[in-house]
Structures are given as C-alpha cells and as structure tokens.
Amino acid sequence: MPGMRMPGNFYLVGLMGAGKTTVGRALARATQKTFYDSDHEIEARTGARIPMIFEIEGESGFREREAETIAELSKLQGIVLGTGGGAILNPINRNHLRRNGYVIYLRASPEELYSRTCHDKNRPLLQTADPLGKLKELYEQRDPLYREVADLVIDTSQQTVNTLLQLLLKELERQT
Ligand SMILES: Nc1ncnc2c1ncn2[C@@H]1O[C@H](COP(=O)(O)OP(=O)(O)O)[C@@H](O)[C@H]1O
Ligand SMILES: O=C(O)C1=C[C@@H](OP(=O)(O)O)[C@@H](O)[C@H](O)C1
Ligand SMILES: [Mg+2]
C-alpha cells in the first residue's frame, strides 16, 4: 500500500526501544506525511544531544524542553510524530496528543526493550547498573498512561518493522 493518504496526525508513544522513531519514520513515508521526532527536535533547538541536556539541566530541564516542543509540534497538521518515552508523564502533553491526533501505543516487554537498547548509550535513564530492572519499573509506571492516551495498541514483540508497518496501515485504513 505505498503512498496511502490518510487525514490528520499520527502520534507514536511507548517505552524506550518500542520503535517510535523507526516505525514512525516508515509510517510517515508510507502515508506521505512529514516525520518529526520530538527528541531530534529538542536536540536541534538546544544544539546539544539528549545525554548532555540531562547532564547539564537534569531530567526536569529536559522535560520542560520536551513540553515546549510537543506543544508546538502538536499544532502542525499532516505529520507523524515520534515522541520520547517519557512525554506522556506530563498531563499537558497527554492532552495535546489526545486532542490533535490519532495516538498509537507501540508495546513491547521490558526484556525485548532491553535487547533493543542495551548497546545504545544515548538514553540517560538506562545508563544504570540494572537497565532491565529500570525498564521493568518504567513499564509498570507508564503502561497505564500509554493506554490512557492510545487510540490503538500494537504489540511489537517478535514483529519486524516492516510487518508492523503493514499491520498499522491496515488498521489505520479501517479506523481513520
Ligand atoms: N519491531 C522491532 N523489532 C526489532 N528491532 C526494532 C523494532 N523496532 C525498533 N527496533 C530497533 O530498536 C532500536 C530502538 O528503536 P527506536 O525506533 O529508536 O525506538 P524508540 O524511538 O521507541 O526508543 C533501534 O535499533 C531499532 O532499529
Ligand atoms: O523514556 C524516557 O523518559 C526517555 C526516552 C527517550 O526517547 P525514546 O523513547 O525515543 O528512546 C528520550 O526522550 C529520553 O532519553 C527520555
Ligand atoms: Mg525515539
């Protein structure tokens, strides 16, 4: 189904390693929408990488930048937005997402998320002695919030990015 046109915005939520950036980019290409990634946008505006922002301003500084960025990006039309895994912690972000687009929760088990993220040093929250334990804790905390905002929950376990894209296109064509 290449080049399918669908109305509105698609927003991707889920934990670190869920595939928001990767699947989001593929979904944008397939639906002829513009892709944005809130983390990339924050880095471009700040002129610093995420680990550096966390180091200098702490998580709270990063969250402020994230909220400003999501408020602005959610005003755009015809986009696919990959959010950062913690964006849904802020109720204002949750409202922007719910109000202005169709929200897709990419779900995966903490073990799978760990296997996808363990070689990457760019996620400060996982630079701990026990990253799998941290992912389990974040899953418990955040899974209800992802579900609260989601119009669609997709289980990404054991699915390739391409299979997920095909699944998503079918489901979105049916629902939107
Ligand atoms: N369904 C999938 N199966 C296997 N690997 C995946 C899948 N989705 C994403 N990945 C890989 O996992 C890593 C994290 O993906 P990314 O898109 O950055 O996740 P997020 O933006 O949700 O943190 C990347 O190396 C990506 O290629
Ligand atoms: O889960 C989180 O709190 C975070 C997820 C990251 O994005 P990804 O979910 O794209 O890895 C990034 O925003 C930052 O490191 C914090
Ligand atoms: Mg990402």
Q: Outline of this structure?
A:
The chain is of the alpha/beta class and 176 residues long. 55% of the residues lie in helices and 12% in strands. It is built from seven helices and five strands, in the order βαβααβαβααβα.
Structural overview:
There is one protein chain. Helix content is 55%, strand content 12%. It is an alpha/beta fold. It has one domain (10-169): P-loop containing nucleotide triphosphate hydrolases (Rossmann fold, 3-Layer(aba) Sandwich), CATH 3.40.50.300. The protein has a five-stranded parallel β-sheet with strand order 2-3-1-4-5, with helices on both faces. Helix 1 (20-31) crosses helix 7 and helix 5 packs across helix 6 (131-149). It is globular and about 45 Å long. The protein starts with 9 loop residues before the first strand and ends with a helix. Residues 20-21, 37, 39, 82 line the site of magnesium ion. Magnesium ion binds next to helix 1. Its cofactor is Mg(2+). Substrate binds at residues 39, 63, 85, 142. It is found in: Cytoplasm.
What secondary-structure arrangement, pairings included, does this model have?
Elements: E1 10-13, H1 20-31, E2 34-37, H2 38-46, H3 50-73, E3 79-82, H4 91-100, E4 102-107, H5 110-117, H6 131-149, E5 152-155, H7 161-175
Parallel strand pairs: 1-3, 1-4, 2-3, 4-5
The structure holds adenosine-5'-diphosphate (ADP), shikimate-3-phosphate (S3P) and magnesium ion (MG).
Shikimate-3-phosphate binds next to helix 1.
Main location: cytoplasm
EC number: 2.7.1.71
Catalytic activity: shikimate + ATP = 3-phosphoshikimate + ADP + H(+)
